[in-house]
Design a protein that fits this description.
Number of strands: 2
Largest sheet: 2 strands, antiparallel
Helix content: 40-55%
Radius of gyration: 13 Å
Number of domains: 1
Amino acid sequence: MVFIAHIRESDKEIQTVSEHLIGVQTLAELIGSKMQISHITGLKIRRSGDL
């Protein structure tokens, strides 16, 4: 089953919940890498987003 997270108004592009969570995980890892904990921040996002 596919769940919609967002629909962009400008071009009606759909972002699924899975795509959204992967994007959030990537950003969390980037921010965590500045503190050398990207492996922790990325895992936390992935785990909290398990469907």
